[in-house]
Amino acid sequence: MLCESKATIISLLLQGIHPERFTVSIIEDKVAGTIGIADSAGYAISVPKNGLKREFGFIKGSVAAKLLTVEFHRPKTFLPYQGHLEFVAVREEFRGHGIAKKMLERIFEEGKYKLYTLDVVEGNEKVMPLYESAGFRFVKKESSKGSKRPGVNFRYLMEKKVEI
After folding, report:
1. What mean pLDDT, rounded, does the chain reach?
2. Which of 25, 12, 21, 22 is nearest to 102 (CA)?
3. 110: domain CATH number?
4. Residue 85 structural domain
């Protein structure tokens, strides 16, 4: 374990959050769902490499930064007109009410990108019909060799092309 302090970990992760890259759904004063979007200008959540090195020392911090970067900074490169949905999350009590689809529609209406991409990890295939209903299509299955999560051996890559 890198650190015993949850507060330290939370503080480091908060440093990497870029709120301008999020779409958030709020219902009854609660965050019902959120989508983080990455593009050629950056990720919705960046890995605080310097903070990790400062907090855990050069070696442990460098290793942690590398592991987090491999896991969270996908894809590594972007087309200039591409937005990558880093994650789509809906609070459990609001699932099944179309929140994710409404957030996706809002993002598409903004018309910022010509190409939207996302990946679905092994074991989470149940969300693929949602993305298909929003216009995404399956592109390919990709090995997740770098993943440190058990049971995650591959990802389904999906894309949606739009006219802007």
Report:
1. 89
2. 25
3. 3.40.630.30
4. 7-161
Does a structural domain hold residue 156? Answer: yes
The pLDDT tens digits for 79-123 are 999 999 999 999 999 999 999 999 999 999 999 999 999 999 899
H/E element, 65: helix 58-72
Pairwise CA distance, residues 140 & 126, whole Å:
17
Three-state SS across 102-152? Answer: HHHHHHHHHCCCCEEEEEEECCCHHHHHHHHHCCCEEEEEEECCCCCCCCC
**Can you tell me the distance from the alpha carbon of 86 to that of 35, in angstroms, rounded to the nearest whole number?**
7
- If we measure between CA atoms, which residue out of 105, 113, 101, 133 comes closest to residue 39? 113
Q: What is the distance between the alpha carbons of residues 23 and 44, in angstroms, rounded to a whole number?
A: 10
Domain membership flag for residue 2: no
Residue position matching structure tokens 């959050």: 17
How many domains, in total, are found in the chain? 1
pTM of the model: 0.82
Q: How many residues belong to the chain?
A: 164
Nearest partner of 20 among 3, 2, 40, 43, judged by Cα? 43
